[in-house]
Write a structure and sequence with these properties.
α2 packs across α4 and α3 runs antiparallel to α4. The chain has a domain of 100 residues: Orthogonal Bundle (Cytochrome Bc1 Complex, Chain D, domain 2). The longest helix is centred in the first third of the chain and has 19 residues. β1 and β2 form a beta hairpin. It is mostly beta strands. The strands form ten sheets. Strands 3-10-9-8-7 form a five-stranded antiparallel beta sheet. Strands 6-5-4-37 form a four-stranded antiparallel beta sheet. Strands 11-12-13-14 form a four-stranded antiparallel beta sheet. The structure holds heme D. The site of heme D has 22 residues, from α2, β11, β17, β21 and β25.
């Protein structure tokens, strides 16, 4: 069973690599090597890196040697682990956060992967501005697009929903809960972000394809596409006053770089490599671009470079003479979100077990906060804690807590909380590790947390809701899979990514089933926690991230 669509460009980029001579690695046929490359790209590279040097996941080079600060050395590698041990790890997962692949890959594929990762990593080709230009498709020039909204849909309450394994995006009308349109996009769209105007949806696929969708047509229409590289995760527009939607930035995992485009046509303008030194002073050949966000304080983007731990503030006022401020934080930067004041961006340095906070006004690191294992905020959640004032919350992939960090506020009534700022003020207990996303809304008194990566079905298929008025109370568990009314399936149906509607009174959860199983979007009333609606449709296949236009446009969380 192989996951299907992977864009031809991304695949040919990876498959173009020749077979190298291997010492000590088990024999493989050419066909097995091709299968290994495809599965590695689709399933493994995100955590372990194309060059397999490790980040969220472990180093998977055939042989590695580490020298500690005290001069002692440690050696290891996939060759040392051998095929049998690797098959076990891939099949059953590990306590360190690696999920079990025995319900995703066949036995033969697990065996192929166990042998493939004992080979020297294949290095895919680079991707230049010329390659980007060649991939650029302007399907509808800006002056030929509608001059006003041509439909009657309340665009602010539209949800863009990733249909992960189909290479498609569903646009659902949040008012009527009807599917408005399902569009082709890149493979396994990672995130959708909105234009400052709320008219356009930008999506980026894992295969590096950016799709620009115009919501003003009778039905949503793709007006431009462009490739950023072979593997990407992030995209955002310029949002500062006077620059709204003028530019778009996209970050790639491979090659490690970010690209700047025209915001309305996607015309490629510039590529900047992120290769360089880590905060520990070592050169890294694959420092991937993780989250990117448009600053509210200045005409800048916050670009988080995973492996180096460097946070770049990219000033977009003069693209030809680009100025960048590079802020040292901690290695393995991943996802993050704004604090309540939208002055500080908090980003997880996940495998360093830290949260880094950037002050976008001063352009400096505001804090580096130690947390429990592998924080994974998504965008996090902001609320006023009854005892500690404004806090930002993150869940953890690697531990059974939700961490609450006190954040600064210029409001007079919050002055008394200053002494707590940048401290972990509370850790809410969860039923286990494996959380990916937490969410709340300014109008809500609830904090929602999923647990899709927990190995227990009863946790992975449920969400937990905390009462913000009394955080010492145990959370309410909602069994999303059961509430969907769908029959139980062999593969886990992971309940993930709570997202509010525009009004802030409903929470939408993805019930992410196997590729051939019926999945669903399950909607709850935020006040009563009662089931409100289940959206099932043969087109809703492997739904994951959901992005409400208004909340994404205004960073409401
Ligand atoms: Fe994500 C955000 C990277 C796996 C769903 N994910 C992000 C961001 C990064 C990232 C860098 C922040 C983007 C930004 O804000 O600019 N994700 C990665 C990986 O490297 C990783 C671990 C492995 C991979 O191969 O991609 C990974 N992510 C997943 C999944 O398996 C998820 C659960 C399902 C899916 O669709 O692939 C998933 N990631 C998401 C979602 C967001 C996200 C829904 C956006 C959260 C938000 O609310 O903004």
């Amino acid at each position: 069973m192989l996951s299907p669509k992977l864009s031809t460009l991304a695949m040919s980029a990876l498959l173009a690599v020749g077979v190298q001579a291997q010492t000590g690695a088990p024999e493989m046929t050419q066909a097995e090597i091709e299968t290994g490359k495809k599965i590695y790209f689709e399933r493994c590279a995100g955590c372990h890196g194309v060059l397999r040097k490790g980040a969220t996941g472990k180093n998977l080079e055939p042989h590695w040697k580490k020298t500690a600060k005290d001069g002692s050395t440690q050696e290891g590698g996939t060759l040392k682990l051998g095929t049998q041990r690797l098959e076990k790890i891939i099949g059953l997962g590990t306590e360190g956060g690696m999920v079990n692949y025995d319900d995703i890959l066949s036995k033969d594929e697990i065996n192929i992967m166990a042998r493939y990762i004992q080979r020297t990593p294949d290095v895919p080709p680079e991707f230049s501005l010329k390659d980007m230009e060649a991939s650029w498709k302007l399907l509808v020039p800006v002056d030929q697009r509608p001059k006003k909204q041509m439909n009657k849909i309340n665009l602010k309450n539209v949800f863009a929903i990733t249909l992960r394994d189909t290479g498609k995006l569903a646009l659902i009308d949040g008012d009527t809960k009807q599917i408005w349109q399902v569009l082709d996009t890149g493979y396994a769209v990672h995130i959708s972000r909105m234009s400052a105007s709320g008219r356009y949806v930008y999506t980026v696929g894992r295969d590096g394809l950016v799709t620009l969708i115009d919501l003003w047509y009778e039905t949503p229409t793709t007006v431009a596409t462009v490739k950023l590289g072979a593997d990407a995760r992030s995209v955002d527009t310029s949002k500062f006053k006077g620059y709204e939607d003028k530019y778009l930035i996209g970050g790639t995992y491979w090659p490690p770089q970010y690209s700047i485009m025209d915001g309305e046509s996607l015309k490629p303008m510039k590529i900047v490599s992120t290769r360089g030194n880590t905060v520990d002073g070592e050169y890294h050949p694959e420092p991937r671009v993780a989250s990117i966000v448009a600053s509210m304080s200045k005409p800048e983007w916050v670009v988080n470079v995973k492996e180096t731990g460097q946070i770049m503030l990219v000033d977009y006022t003069d693209i030809k003479n680009l100025k960048t401020t590079t802020i040292e934080s901690a290695k393995f930067l991943h996802d993050g979100g704004w604090d309540m004041s939208k002055r500080y961006f908090l980003v997880a340095a996940n495998a360093s077990h830290k949260i880094a906070a950037v002050d976008t006004k001063t352009g400096k690191l505001a804090a580096l906060v130690d947390t429990k294992k592998i924080p994974h905020p998504g965008r996090g959640a902001n609320f006023v804690h009854p005892t500690y004032g404004p806090v930002w919350a993150t869940g953890h992939l690697g531990d059974a807590v939700i961490t609450l960090i006190s954040t600064p506020s210029e409001k007079k009534e919050h002055a008394k909380f200053k002494a707590h700022n940048w401290k972990v003020v509370q850790e809410l207990k969860t039923g286990g590790a494996g959380n990916l996303f937490v969410k709340t809304h300014p109008k809500s008194t609830h904090l929602w947390a999923d647990m899709p990566m927990n190995p227990e079905r009863e946790n992975a298929e449920a969400v937990y809701v905390y009462d913000l008025k009394d955080l010492n109370k145990a959370p309410v568990k909602l069994d999303v899979a059961k509430d969907s009314g769908l029959p139980e399936t062999k593969a886990l149906r992971r309940a993930t990514h709570p997202e509010y509607n525009e009004a802030g009174d409903e929470v939408w959860i993805s019930l992410w089933g196997g590729k051939t199983d019926q999945s669903a979007i399950v909607i709850y009333d935020d006040k009563t926690l009662k089931l409100k609606k289940v959206i099932t449709d043969p087109r809703i296949v492997t739904p994951t991230g959901k992005f409400n236009v208004f909340n994404t446009q205004h960073d409401v969380y």
